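Re: the pair you flagged

First of the two:
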Amino acid sequence: MKLPHIVISKIIRALHDIFVDRRYADKAVEFTFKHHPKWGSRDRRMFAEAIYEIVRYWRWYWHLAGLPDADHARRECIGDEELWRVWAAFQVMQNGELPPFDELVGIRRQDIIDRSKQEVSPVIRASLPDWLDERLSRELGDAWPAIRDTLNEPAKVYLRVNTLKTERRSLKERLGQDGFITEALKPIPTALEMQQRYNVFGMAAFKEGLFEVQDASSQLVAPFLQVEPGMKVIDACAGGGGKTLHIGALMQNKGRILALDVHQWKLNELRKRCGRAGVDVAETRLIEGSKSIKRLANYADRVLLDVPCSGLGVLRRNPDAKWKLSNVEIDRLIVEQQDILVRYSSMVKPGGKLVYATCSILPSENEEQVQKFLATHGDDWTLEEEMKINPAETGHDGFYAARLVRKVPEPKAHVSEASQSEPVPEPAAE
């Protein structure tokens, strides 16, 4: 197959944007597609698959290109010459021949193959920063190697059936009629797995609000909150609102949902999604400061805290995150998570429940945060259940959730008027 030089040159440009200018990979892909609307499906697929594969295995392909390992994370060492060599390594490892491009003169296919047979450290082969491998190994112990391998596998596409508008069997049949094959996940009643790659956002069924794109693990979080129709529910870190929509469906559009976030643009997008999905009970509200939280004290039957996190459980979907994270950033997130848990928990009414959730696999972001919270607030809260989703065991994204119950204060003992009077003396012994 003849490779179009224009597409490969745009791959090089996008890799520069990602590794030098620190742009997110999905934004780099979206930007390129927007500026090349006449590309066909083959070129678009070639471009996107190359970008995500190279980002996922960046350090490994850097090694195969014959470049010094120490330079793979140094932006000043990443130029067009190095990027062409990295792409050449990718192309060869995909069992491809090197095209006769001027930029590839002097690069020998056999040299790349020979390097692929050399012994290298597992962290280079798995393409992780040293600090991240060390931290995950320290926190996860013997479980880390299997998880590390799983997180390098390309992510599958899962759909969540919008039960406000359809049910799984009907959606599966509808998609089949449109030429798309899906498989139902038995343990998760709302989940369908796509069997082929496709831009699902262009499907008619999506535009009609019949489904959302949501990983299988993520689809377990809203049910874990144990909502019921008629409840008052707060999704306190709503973001784009995927879980808000799921909660609305579980509540059968009965009750009230407050979707909160610190970013207005995310809430604007959520309102559009609610309209498409037919979720009528959700109201968006911007968190403008501590007063926004205090006004909601003791308000909700249920509160979901899907807190900002490292996202290490979803590296298959966002492989560039491992090149942008740092120990400092994770430690900052841990402080922020505990602050959110302490302050936002006041929104739960006595007897209500709170779910603390992350898409991280780090215990320091997960169970250790809950333990720390209970160490200082255990008089008012109790841990009811934890859910830990190991990507190596499930093949889905890594998630954590803990459901906490706010205790109902015991009523004060009633003091009768008689007991408040002067004590009655014991009768004198006869």
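Second of the two:
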Amino acid sequence: MKSNVTADMLQRVSEELAPLKNSNVSLKQVPATSTANAQHAQPLNTHAVVSEVPEQIAKVKSALSVLSSDVPRGQGKLYEPGETSVSEDYWLLVIWAIRSLNWTCGEEIARAWSIQSGRYTDEGFEQAWNGFDPNKPDKVGIGSLYKLAKAHGWIAPATEAVPAIPIAASDRYKVMWPTDIANIQPIQWRLKHVLPATGLAAIYGASGSGKTFMTVDLGAAISHGNPWFGIKTYQTTVIYVVLEGEAGIRNRIQALEKAQGPLPPNGFGVITQPFEIVKPQDLVDLSAVIPSGSVVFIDTLNRSAPIADENSSRDMGQILEAAKTLYRATNSLVVLVHHTGKDASRGMRGHSSLFAAMDGAIEVTRDAAGNRSWAVVKAKDGEDDKTANFRLKRHVLGQDVDGEDIVSCSVEPDSSKVFVTREPSGAKQKLALAAIRRALASANNIGKCTSGTGNPCLSVTEAIAVVAAELTTEPANKRNYKAKGLIDSLRGGGFVCSGLDAQGDGWLWKL
């Protein structure tokens, strides 16, 4: 399959990668000017450009604060001929140093400093200010002022370079009025209302949950443009970067094709070479073989960043920036396959910025009884309440050299359960949900809010009380607070339904 990545796209990748490189900026060596060309060589500008920003203005004023303006005019030089100490006749030097900055506020700063002297006259100041020659080879620069101030005991304040705010008008920002807003193109989907056509997404779950089987199944559906669990897909090329379980990918593809038929010849590609997402060259090389508009699965995130600390905001920030670079450069959807942490109820393993950066996320779970399900836990501008059961269907693909069966699995919906009942993973969430269910079994309030006719309901106040009563290991003064947090997590996870009545009171009921 020939990639349709253009040179412009690769250039875009290189530009995107700039922030990821930690190497120090170095100056390119300039070839020595030949004798024949020496007469045409231009003089080098040895003075750094200093932006007219508050930090730099404050720095100049700080240097002036240690210098008296009531000194002789001088010749505008830091050192007198034959002297090694700075000149005490420095008034003109200071004026020209400020003038060299070419700031709009420079004259005001220089005049305010000069006027403190009894020697000051408007005529003398104007003559000095206008007498500065910017084309003079050995012209005074702001560095001379700082060196003079340091000789008088000045300590430079710590400042950070801040880019200057351009004064000229710009068309960078555009105000969009209602008619403009109405013409914004609607979001383009890859898996309708779940995963966008471009961006960053994740599929995650515990080891053994079936997330890789399910991911391959989703990729196959997208490569064909077939519905996936009844959800519409929009066909495109799929690239699967296999970094975990490489040896088994052949069997998994064979099992999938045995269940669903052949994959499109140029629609589903697999990459098995090592790949590290935070290595700039790896990003460039991978981008070069990804057709524009693809879906790129990276399985797994951990294997693509082997030395990164997933709990570090800095390391996770570099991983996310690299992933964004990949999808921007290839105009693709990048899907990170990842694991849950030790506490599965807290979702994806690693720093919270990972989940926050996702445009879509699907969680894959397997309960104690072996029942598997997936749920949409995040879908920007989409629907995050989709969930379904699935099971793995075993296929015999042949026999090995010892005559034993070679087996793998494909994914199929679990039609034995029409409705999915998800259970929380955290021990305290399970405790809280069990308490709420017991209370609902004997509840006197029926059909509150949008719960439906005949559905038992529990007020939020009652729910807090019954959950707090179970938290016997918590300090008594913190049980209600903990109970509220657990109830919020159950509501957010879709384990119970909630709503407000006409009086503004909150109610809970079973799914």
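Residues 21-48 have pLDDT under 50 and may be disordered.

-B.
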